[in-house]
Write a structure and sequence with these properties.
This protein is of the alpha/beta class. It has 15 helices and 22 strands. It has helices at 15-26, 42-47, 49-66, 69-72, 83-108, 163-167, 183-194, 214-227, 282-285, 321-335, 364-370, 384-388, 417-429, 434-438, 449-458, and strands at residues 6-11, 31-35, 111-114, 117-121, 124-127, 130-139, 143-145, 160-161, 175-179, 198-202, 230-232, 235-243, 246-253, 260-264, 266-269, 273-275, 308-310, 349-351, 356-361, 373-379, 395-401, 407-414. The structure holds flavin-adenine dinucleotide and 1,4-dihydronicotinamide adenine dinucleotide.
Length: 465
C-alpha cells in the first residue's frame, strides 16, 4: 500500500491552486485539490478578475452609447439599462469558466475534495471529516478583503460593501464613495460611474495607484477626473454610520485636522487584500506567517515545514492571478523533480479601466535608485490607430539602462494597454534593449506601434512626433 493517499494535495482551487493541481497531474503525480467554495476557480473566477471584467466590458458599451462616443462616430443610440441582463451575463461568464475548471479536473484526473481543509500534521489534512494524506501539500488559499476598522461591511444590504458586494449591486447607486484609490476602487468605481453613479474616491496617500510609475499615477488621475470621478487624496475615513439606505462617512486629512462628513448611497471598502490562513491549522504544523500574514517560501516554494509549499496571494509578491498561475506551474514542476521558474522581476500588472493602465518591470523612480536611465514617452494622441479610434488619452513610456540600453520597465496608458504590455514583458524576459524593440517591425496601424515609437525615442529618433 502506498505510504500516502496522494503525491500532491493542493489546498485552494484559485488560479494558483487549480493550475498547480492540473500541472502536477499532467506530470504523472496522483493529485487532489481541496476547495471549500461550491465552485472551482477561487477569487479570480468567482468574485474577482472575471466578474469584474464582465461588468467593466458591459458598462463600457453603455458608457460609449450614453456619453456621445458612438454618436460622434455617426451611430445614434439611446441606451436603456437592463440590470438583470447585465448581471446575467456576468453570472454566465463565471458559471461557464468555473465549470470549465471542473471539466479540466476530471480530464486530468485531479480529485476535488470538497470542503474546508485543515492541517492535522504536515502530511495529513482534514477535509469535511475525511483525513487525506499526501507526500507534498501546497497551500494556495489566496487572500480576503482587508477590513477597515470602524466600517462594517454587509454585502446583503448593498450600502457598505466590499468588492464582492460592489459587483452585485441590484441598482445603480446615486452616489458611491470608494475608499481606496487602488485597482479595485478604480475598476469598480469606473463600472458604476459609467452606469450613471456619482463616484467619489477617498485615498489615504497623496496619489492613487501606489506602486505604479509616478507619471502614470498622475496622468491616470487626470483622466479619471475628466471622466467624472472625484478624488479626495491624503484623506482617511474614520468611520461610516448607516441609517436605512444611506451611509454617512466621517473623513479627516491623513495628516490630522478638521473632520468632515459626506453622505453616500453606497460605500465600497477597497483598501487592499490580506493573505488567507485562518482556520488552516498552521499551528498544528508549526508554520508561522510573517508580519504581513504571508507564508514565506524559498525559490522552490518550500515553506519552513518539510513537505509543505505555498504559492499565490498567500505568499509575498503582487496579488495577481497570472503570478499565482505561474507559481502553480512552477511548484508542480519542482515537486515532480523538474525546474520551475517564475521571473518575479517581469510580472505585468494591468488596471482594466478605459483607458487601461499597464506596467511591467521597474518604475522610473525605482530604476533611478539603481543607476542612470534613459526614458522616452510617446503619446497615444500621436498614434494613428488610437487617434482614428478617438482614443487620444495616455502614453507609452520606456525606461532603459543608460549604459546597456537594456529595458528596465515599460508603462502605458492606452485603450488596449493590457494587451500591449505582453510584448514589453516578452521583450524584457529575453533581455531586450530599447533598440531591439525600435527595430522590430510592428504592424500598422496598431496601438502597439506606440511602444516601438517610445523605444525609438529612447534612441533619440522617434518618427511620428
Ligand atoms: P484565490 O483565487 O483567492 O483562491 C484561493 C481559494 O482557496 C479560494 O477559492 C478559497 O475558497 C480556497 N480556500 C482558502 N482556504 C481554504 C481552506 N482552508 N480549505 C479549502 N479551500 C480554501 N488579478 C489579476 O491578475 N487580474 C485581475 O483582473 C484581477 N481582478 C480582481 C478583481 C477583484 C474584484 C479581486 C478581489 C481580485 C482580482 N484579482 C485580479 C486578484 C486575483 O483574483 C488573485 O490574485 C488571485 O485569485 C489569487 O489566486 P490564488 O490562487 O492565490 O487565490
Ligand atoms: P490596492 O492595494 O490596489 O489599493 C488599496 C488602496 O487603498 C491604496 O491606494 C491604499 O493607499 C489605499 N488605502 C489603504 N488604506 C486606506 C484607508 N484607510 N483609507 C483610504 N485609502 C486607503 O488594493 P485593492 O484595490 O483593494 O485590491 C486588492 C488586490 O487585488 C490588489 O493587490 C490587486 O493586485 C488585486 N486586484 C488586481 C486587479 C487587476 O489586476 N486588474 C483588479 C482588482 C484587484
Amino acid at each position: 500500500m502506498a505510504e500516502y493517499d496522494y503525491d500532491v494535495l493542493v489546498i485552494g482551487a484559485g488560479p494558483g491552486g487549480y493550475v498547480a493541481a492540473i500541472r502536477a497531474a499532467q506530470l504523472g503525480l496522483k493529485t487532489a485539490c481541496a476547495e471549500s467554495r461550491e465552485t472551482l476557480g477561487g477569487t479570480c473566477l468567482n468574485v474577482g478578475c472575471i466578474p469584474s471584467k464582465a461588468m467593466l466590458h458591459a458598462s463600457e458599451y453603455f458608457d460609449a452609447a450614453a456619453n456621445g462616443t458612438m454618436e460622434h462616430m455617426g451611430i445614434d443610440v439611446t441606451p436603456k439599462l437592463n440590470m438583470d441582463k447585465l448581471h446575467g451575463q456576468r453570472i454566465d461568464a463565471v458559471d461557464g469558466l468555473t465549470k470549465g475548471i471542473e471539466f479540466l479536473f476530471k480530464k486530468n484526473k485531479v480529485d476535488w475534495k470538497k470542503g474546508h481543509a485543515k492541517f492535522v500534521d504536515a502530511h495529513t489534512v482534514e477535509v469535511a471529516g475525511e483525513k487525506v494524506t499526501a507526500k507534498e501539500v501546497v497551500i494556495a488559499t489566496g487572500s480576503s478583503v482587508t477590513p477597515l476598522p470602524g466600517v462594517e461591511v454587509d454585502n446583503s444590504k448593498h450600502v457598505v460593501v466590499d468588492s464582492t458586494g460592489a459587483l452585485e449591486l441590484p441598482k445603480v447607486p446615486g452616489h458611491i464613495v470608494v475608499i481606496g484609490g487602488g485597482v479595485i476602487g478604480l475598476e469598480l468605481g469606473s463600472v458604476w460611474r459609467r452606469l450613471g453613479a456619482k463616484v467619489t474616491c477617498v485615498e489615504f496617500l497623496d496619489e492613487i495607484l501606489p506602486g505604479m510609475d509616478g507619471d502614470v499615477r498622475k496622468e491616470a488621475r487626470k483622466i479619471f477626473k475628466k471622466q467624472g470621478i472625484e478624488f479626495k487624496l491624503a484623506t482617511k475615513v474614520t468611520g461610516v454610520t448607516v441609517k436605512g439606505k444611506k451611509a454617512t462617512l466621517t473623513l479627516e486629512p491623513a495628516a490630522g485636522g478638521d473632520e468632515e462628513t459626506m453622505t453616500a448611497d453606497c460605500v465600497l471598502v477597497s483598501i487592499g487584500r490580506k493573505p488567507k490562513t485562518e482556520g488552516l491549522g498552521l499551528e498544528n504544523i508549526g508554520l508561522e506567517t510573517n508580519q504581513r500574514g504571508q507564508i514565506e517560501v524559498d525559490g522552490e516554494f518550500r515553506t519552513s515545514v518539510e513537505g509543505v509549499r505555498a504559492i499565490g496571494d498567500v505568499v509575498p509578491g503582487p496579488m495577481l492571478a497570472h503570478k499565482a498561475e505561474d507559481e502553480g506551474i512552477a511548484v508542480a514542476e519542482w515537486i515532480a523533480g523538474e525546474t520551475g521558474i517564475v521571473n518575479h522581476d517581469v510580472i505585468p500588472s494591468v488596471v482594466y479601466t478605459l483607458p487601461e493602465i499597464a506596467g511591467v518591470g521597474l518604475t522610473e523612480e525605482q530604476a533611478k535608485e539603481k543607476g542612470a536611465v534613459k526614458t522616452s514617452k510617446f503619446p497615444m494622441m500621436a498614434n494613428s490607430r488610437a487617434k482614428t479610434n478617438h482614443e487620444p488619452d495616455g502614453f507609452v513610456k520606456v525606461i532603459a539602462d543608460a549604459e546597456t540600453d537594456r529595458v528596465l520597465g515599460v508603462w502605458c496608458i492606452a485603450s488596449v494597454a493590457g494587451t500591449m504590455i505582453a510584448e514589453a514583458a516578452l521583450a524584457m524576459e529575453f533581455g531586450a534593449t530599447s533598440e531591439d524593440i525600435a527595430y522590430t517591425c510592428h504592424a500598422h496601424p496598431t496601438h502597439a506601434e506606440a511602444l516601438k515609437e517610445a523605444a525609438m525615442g529612447v534612441q533619440g529618433k522617434p518618427i511620428h512626433i
